[in-house]
Each structure stands twice: as C-alpha cells, then as structure tokens.
Design goal:
The protein has 180 residues and is of the alpha+beta class. Helix content is 31%, strand content 20%. The protein has helices at residues 39-60, 86-97, 133-141, 147-153, 175-179, and strands at 2-5, 66-73, 76-83, 104-111, 123-126, 169-172. Helix 3 (133-141) crosses helix 4 (147-153). The two termini are 24 Å apart.
Length: 180
C-alpha cells in the first residue's frame, strides 16, 4: 500500500520505558569527564524501544503476522511481514499509525494468499472534531445506522463506538463489503 500519513501528536501512548532511563549517579571527579550518549545514540535507543513496544502492541491485539519486522526511524514506521488477509494488513497499519509520535507508516506487508473474490481494500478516513461513527456512516454509506460496520472494521483497536478522537484514522470497508 505504500506510505500512509498519520497525525503524529494523537493516538494511544506507547510505554517505551522513558521513565526507566539510567539515573546519573554522582561519582567522584575523574581526570577526564565521562561522556554521555550522543543525541543520535539517544534517538536510536528510543527508536529501538518503540520497535519493541509496537511489536508487543501488534501481538497483544491478537494479530498473527508471519516474520513481522518493524523498524522505527524517528516518526516513521516501516512494517514488513506476511499476513493472512487484506483486512489484517490494514488493521496492523492503522494500529501502528494511530500511535502518538508516529507520523507515517511505510506498509510493506504482504497478503499470503490474496483471495480472487476478496473485498476491495478499505478506504481510510481521518476523524474530525464533532465526528461520530454514525455521522461518518451517513456520509460514506448514506445510512447512519451502518455505523456498526465501521466499528467492526476497526476492532480490536476500537473497544467502544463512542471513543473516537480527532486525528484518528479509521478503516471504512468498501460498499460491497458493507452490504454483505
């Protein structure tokens, strides 16, 4: 699918253990002052912590990609591996992108055996202030009562249909899938 942009200052927060940074212990003066890590070393460490936290998040949500490889460079995530379906692929990308501090996801996931009659890829929708799933369903499908299709298409990331937030990106299943 390629590079997908997200709003980096919204989304769920990752516990990357920033509060576990080693404390600077006061040591007696030495003939040469100890050099701390460089800014690049700190960024690399933080990126590695994000990789671990994002990988754990994918696993906690119950996704089972084969050969999952997540790489973080600042606010950009690259995800590789093989998934069972287009739906799982889209959900993993959204899970990663709807994380605070992530500005884009380079989707390099492969679907293991694409179904010839599978539904077309879903569209993405950026939630705006004042949106609800029923309002989005009315706009997309012409029927506010189809909000549950959007809710189900975004599970397990959404636990409650009323808990969406501005800047969040949602999967909107294609109309053919919505009528199925």
């Amino acid at each position: 699918m390629g590079l997908i942009d997200f709003i980096k200052n919204v989304g769920h927060k990752l516990d990357v253990g920033a509060h576990n940074q080693p404390a600077q212990a006061s040591q007696p003066a030495q003939s040469q002052p100890a050099q701390g890590p460089t800014q690049q070393q700190l960024q690399d460490l933080n990126d590695r912590k994000k990789v671990t936290a994002l990988t754990n998040l994918v696993n906690q949500m119950g996704f089972k990609p084969q050969n999952l490889l997540i790489d973080v460079k600042g606010e950009r995530v690259t995800v590789k591996g093989t998934v069972a379906s287009q739906e799982e692929k889209e959900k993993i990308v959204l899970l990663l992108g709807n994380t605070e501090g992530i500005g884009s996801v380079d989707d390099q996931l492969q679907v293991s055996s694409p179904q010839p009659q599978a539904a077309p890829p879903a569209q993405y929708y950026d939630v705006k202030s004042g949106d609800s799933l029923s309002k989005i369903a009315k706009q997309v499908y012409g029927d506010a009562n189809k909000y549950n299709l959007i809710f189900e298409a975004n599970r397990p990331m959404l636990k409650n249909a009323d808990e969406i937030y501005p800047g969040q990106k949602l999967r909107i299943p294609a109309m053919a899938t919505a009528h199925a």
